[in-house]
Every structure is written in C-alpha cells, then in structure tokens.
Amino acid sequence: MRVRLGLRSRILALTMPVVLLISAALAGIVYLSLGQVLEASARDVARAEVVELRADLAVHGVSDLIGTHAVLDGNRVVQVVDPRTREVVAATGGAPTTPLLRVEPEGDSVRVEKVSDVTGLPEGAWVVATADAASPENEHYTLLVGVPTRVETTALGQSTEFAFIGAVGLIALLGAVTTFAVGQALRPVERMRDQVEAVAASGAPPAPGPALEVPAGRDELARLAETMNHLLERMHTADASRRAFVADAGHELRSPLATIRVLLDRLAEERPSTDRQATAARASAEVDRLAVLVEDLLTLASADEHAMVLHRAEIDLDDVVLAETGALRARGMPVSVAVEPVRLEGDPARLGRVVRNLLENAERHRNEVVRVRLGHDGEAAVLTVDNDGPPIEPADRDRVFNRFVRLDDSRTRGTGGTGLGLAIVAEIVAAHDGTVEATESPEGWCRFAVKLPVQAPSG
Residue 76, Cα to own-chain centre: how many angstroms? Predict the structure, then answer.
C-alpha cells in the first residue's frame, strides 16, 4: 500500500534535497577556493624566502648562509646547489642530499613549482621556489626553498570538517525553521478542518452565514475559507431545497394516491354501472394526474443533477409555438397568436414543453383571452404569453418559479396543476442559456416573457 506523506513531510522532502545540493555546492566552492588560497600562500612564502636568501648569499657567502639566515624554521628546507656539478653544497638540517628540483639558472627570475613527493622528506606535496644567486666571490649558485603543503592540507581538512559540521547544523536549523513556518502557515487550515469536521459531526445542515473563520488578509487561505463558506452556504441552500422538495413531493403524491385508493374501494362495491363508470373515469383522471406529477418530478430531478439532456438542433421556434397553440385552439380555447420567423439551436421537445406549460398556466388563470407573441429583440428571441387575468404581485414574481408554489392553491388544484409547471419552464430556459420572468402587459394583464439567445435572421 502506498503511503502518502503529510503536507509538512512533503515540503521538507522537497526543500531538504535543494538545501543539501546548495550546501554541497557551497562546500565544494569553499574547499576549492580555500585550497587555492593556501597553496598560493605557500608559494608566496617560498618565493619570499628564496629572494631573502639570495640577498643574504650576496653578503655572507655560502659558508655563513645557513647559520645567519634568520627566517628559516622547521617547516622549510633550504638547499644551495652548484649549477655546474648539481651538488648540494649547503643545506638546512633534514634536507636531502639531492636537489629538491632539477632546474637550470634563469638569471634574476624566481621560479615556483609544486612537487608531489620529495625523496628523504615527509610524504606530501611541496612547493619549491628556485632562484639564481651569486656569492661575494661572484660564484654562482642555485637556491632552492621547499615549503611543505601538509600544513595547508591539514588546515584544509580541518576547515572541511568544520564546514561539514556547520552544514549539518544549518540543515537541521533550516529543517526546524521550515517545520515551524509550515506549521504556523497551516494553523488556519487546521482550524478550518476542525470547523468543517464539527459541521459534519453535528449531522445537521450548516447554518446560514459564514461557517468558517476567514483569516485576515487577502492571501490564498482567506480565499480558500471564502470558497468553502460559499460551498457550505450552497450546501445549506441545496439541503433546505431538497428537504422542502421531498416534503412537498410526498404531500403531492399522497393526495392522488389516497383518492385512487378510495375510488378503487368504491369500484369494489356493488354499484350501478353508471356509478362504476364515473368512478373509473375519476380514478383514470387521478392516475393521469399522478403520471404528470411523476414526470415533472423526474424532469426537475434531472435538472438538479445537472443532467438535463438537451437534444439540440436547428429548429424554427415559430413552428413550435404554432403547434402548441393549435392544440389549445382545438380544445376550444380562444388564443390570439402572432409570430415572426425565429430560428435557433435548441431542443424542440423541451422548448415545446416550455410553451405548453406557459399556455396551460395562462388557461388556468385567464378570464377570457390568451395572447401569444413571438419576435426578436436584438440577438434574442422573445416569447410572451399573456392572459387577461390579474398580473402576479411584484413580491411573488420570483417565487412563482419555485417548486410547488401555488399563488391560488385551491383553484390550481381544482384545475389539475401540480405546482411544478413554471419551475420546469425556468429550468429548461436556463438550460438553453435564456431567462424567464413574470411581469405585466401594457393592458395590465398577466404576462410571462421568455428570452432565448439566437442570431438575428439574415436577409
């Protein structure tokens, strides 16, 4: 099973390799730089020593040179070599009997070379400075001064150890600081998590208003808290809507089911055939009402799940309107219709349902006349369905599109409405990126206006 590290561990796992690489690079740079500095220091010492020896040889001669030279110490060796015979004619104690370096006289110049190992001397590299010099008797000699690099190597090793210890300490310090800083940065997240867990553990829907504390400032954590508050608010609204929807649906389903049960009991009784036919007709009507209600509930449920399937195609909306109003006229309903050619992309069955629901609503609430108009408003198609009944009060014009809302409950129930028709209209129109509103016609009639996006007709 794959183990997923926590956020702190992941941040440390990401930052520590970077710190290690940077520390290693810095240590390498320091090591190389310090080595070069120490070697340069040894070269400078050897060069200065051989220059001073050349001056002393010109004054004291070879016999007194070693004894009178005051700069020598145990960390250097000096040789005076006869350039003709290549023999060491004078040397400090411990110096080998052979020249440290095979060189040719080059006038007044001073040469400095590095020798990896010298026979007869302690192991390790040496820096050897050479120079041509003359005695008071004008005898020419080659002076060699050897400076061991083991002292510098020891210093470099110690410096490397100190640098390693310092790097380890620095890494540990950075790890501790990173852990503390990440912990401080995540404290608001921990508080938000605790608050969300408290909401989840309560078993109740989140209360209205901000459920999480929003940290001060406008950083990512503040935006996260605001987003989560928005999400919890939507959850509260959705839960409240769901509870109301379930309660209303149960109430609406209970009524036709109870009526059907009573009618079935009556059918089981011994009654005249005319009574039985009337009872059966009423039961069939209640079944039809129940089927319509179930269909409406399924339509809204699919919309709630954002799964309302639209079979989009290029359609003539004016043909849809004429077909629906024709069906209403066939039932003897006086309908005034005026349409313009409107072509748009949409689901013909769903848009037909919009027109039908608006017509049925107008039929239930009219006094005498229903009027339908279809036209253009810029790049939008506008469908208005008017009835000569009283307009909806401004305070109820948004609420009328909610589910199971009946502004005239007894009248709507008596004419077979489910209280879901306008809610379905709003969902279908929204799925087509349109708008629907309840308003008032210039004559003071009740009006429902639908706007759907469409390209203005060409030609």
Answer: 67
What are the CA-CA distances from residue 314 to residues 155, 344, 349, 454 (Å)?
87, 6, 12, 11
CA angle 259, 260, 262 (to 5 degrees): 65
Whole-number Cα distances in Å, 238 to 22, 232, 241, 309? 53, 10, 5, 21
- The arrangement of strands across the sheet holding 87-91 comes to 87-91, 77-82, 140-148, 126-134, 110-115
- The residue among 224, 193, 199 whose CA lies nearest residue 211 is 199
Q: pTM of the full predicted structure?
A: 0.49
239-271, pLDDT tens digit by residue? 776 676 666 666 567 767 777 787 777 777 777
Length of the chain: 459
Q: What would the two tokens of residue 268 be?
A: 């089981």
Q: Which residues lie across from 370 on neighbouring strands?
A: 335, 387
Contact, 325 vs 428, CB < 8 A?
no
Instruction: Give the closest residue to 362 by CA, choosing from 382, 389, 381.
Output: 389
CB neighbours of residue 320 within 10 Å:
23
Measured in degrees and rounded to the nearest 5, phi and psi for residue 208 equal: -60, 155
Strand residues in 188-247 grouped as ranges (E): none
Tens of pLDDT, residue by residue over 418-438, are 677 888 899 899 989 999 999
Q: Indicate whether 355 pLDDT > 60.
A: yes
Q: What is the dihedral of CA 426, 431, 433, 434, to 10 degrees?
A: -20
In this structure, how many other beta carbons lie within 10 angstroms of the beta carbon of residue 72?
Answer: 17
CA distance 372 to 321: 8
Domains of the chain: 7-154 (3.30.450), 220-304 (1.10.287), 313-453 (3.30.565.10)
* Contact of 386 with 427, CB cutoff 8 Å: no
DSSP 109-140: -EEEEEES--TTS-SS-EEEEEEEEE-TT--E
What's the CA gap between 431 and 452, in Å, rounded?
10
Other beta carbons within 10 angstroms of residue 63's beta carbon come to: 11
3-state class (DSSP) for residue 76 = coil
For the chain, first and last CA: distance in Å? 67
The dihedral sign for the CA sequence 87, 92, 94, 95: negative
For the range 447-450, what are the long-range contacts, defined as Cβ-Cβ under 8 Å and sequence gap of 24 or more? 447/384, 447/385, 447/386, 447/391, 448/358, 448/361, 448/362, 448/384, 448/385, 448/386, 448/422, 449/382, 449/383, 449/384, 450/354, 450/358, 450/382, 450/383, 450/384, 450/425
Q: Using CA atoms, how far apart are residues 306 and 296, in angstroms rounded to an integer?
A: 15
Compute the distance between CA of residue 343 and CA of residue 6 in angstroms, rounded to an integer: 57
